[in-house]
Amino acid sequence: MTWPFENDTRGIEKKMAQKSFQANRGRNIIAVVSIVLTAMLFTGLFTLQRGLTESTERADMILSGGDGHARIIHLNPSAYDAISAHPLVDEIAYCQTLAERVDNAALSKRETLFLYYDENALKYHFTEPTGGHRPNGENEIIADTQTLELLNVPLSVGENITLELTVQGRQIKRDFVLAGWWESYPGVHYGTIVTSQSYMQAHAEEIQYKKGVETGSITAIIKFASTSNVSEDLQTVVEESGFSTNVDDDNYVNAGINPKYSYSQKNNRHWNNFRNRLRAGDVFVGGISDHIYL
User: Fold this and answer.
1) 3-class secondary structure for 87-145?
2) CA 265, 269, 275, 278 torsion: positive or negative?
3) What is the pTM assigned to this prediction?
4) Who's near 66: CB < 8 A, 6+ residues apart?
5) Where are the domains of the chain?
6) How far is residue 87's CA from residue 251's CA, in Å, rounded to a whole number?
7) Over the stretch 244-284, which tens digit does the pLDDT of each residue have?
């Protein structure tokens, strides 16, 4: 409503706004484009940061022993069988070292492991192939992409690869074909080459376990039903399977907890101690000793 003494300027204001928009159309378009590009940039940076964080966390897990709760290294087959049969072991992965070294000159500056992983080990070590397939044939292998790059091997199933290996102190040269690969993780500074169970069966004699030799030794990666008592559960499994964690004992086995769960358990123990002290009234809160029930 317009009063008699007022001027109706709405039409004029509308025309002025339209003319202003048309006069500054180019500037307005640039402003809108700038806003869109800025939003895209921040979205891209966030996505990149998230990807790098996930890769770093994955590398830390691999270097800490993978996705298992605990691991026992340098086992012979009978020791592995005894431990894997314990009722506290919910899942177990089988990893076997098949050579002391990979001696290819192209890998001289990057230590590379030659191993057999069963299905659980591939999963726990995050080495399931993202291209190709798992190794099945006697001469099939999979490897991380950086190792293949150093060997100048294209990421293509069926590519030929010759490996120079030290096995039980002997130098051996063998031909393989590439079955698959996975992306190398930033922060993991060693290479991994995994072959098949068929290879192990074909070369069973040369990879027989010998105490003090890497080739033939087995690593067991263990998962329990719960992570609340990993240290105690591991100790129970070792002792009730007929072994000891005392390095001076004849039946000693090298067992350890994944640091991820070790830190968690330490924090839980600190909290439990604190809670018990609170219950007993031994903790001063705000300078006043009080009985607090949790």
Assistant:
1) CCEEEEEEEEECCCEECCHHHCCCCEEEEEECHHHHHHCCCCCCEECCCCCCCEEEEEH
2) negative
3) 0.71
4) 93, 121, 124, 125, 126, 221, 258
5) 61-264
6) 20
7) 999 999 999 999 998 877 655 544 444 344 444 444 444 33
Strand partners, 164: 173
Contact between 145 and 182 (Cβ < 8 Å): yes
146 phi and psi angles, rounded to 5 deg: -70, -40
> In a 10 Å sphere around its CB, with 0-12 CB exposed, 13-18 middle and 19+ buried, how is residue 127 labelled?
buried
Q: Which residue has the tokens 């590398």?
A: 59
Measured between alpha carbons, how far is 219 from 256 in angstroms, rounded to an integer? 11
Q: Tell me, what's the pLDDT at 33?
A: 72
Report which secondary-structure segment, H or E, holds 79. helix 77-84
CA atoms within 13 A on the CB side of 73: 10
Q: Are 145 and 181 in contact (CB under 8 A)?
A: yes
Cα(47)–Cα(44) distance, integer angstroms = 5
CB count within 10 Å of CB 191 equals 22
**Burial label, 138 (beta-carbon count in 10 A; 0-12, 13-18, 19+):** middle
Q: What is the dihedral of CA 212, 215, 217, 219, to 10 degrees?
A: 130
Question: What Å distances lie between residue 94 and 141, 192, 231, CA to CA?
Answer: 17, 15, 20
CB 147 within 8 A of CB 96: no
Per-residue pLDDT tens digits for 36-95: 777 676 565 555 555 455 555 555 666 655 789 999 999 999 999 999 999 999 999 999
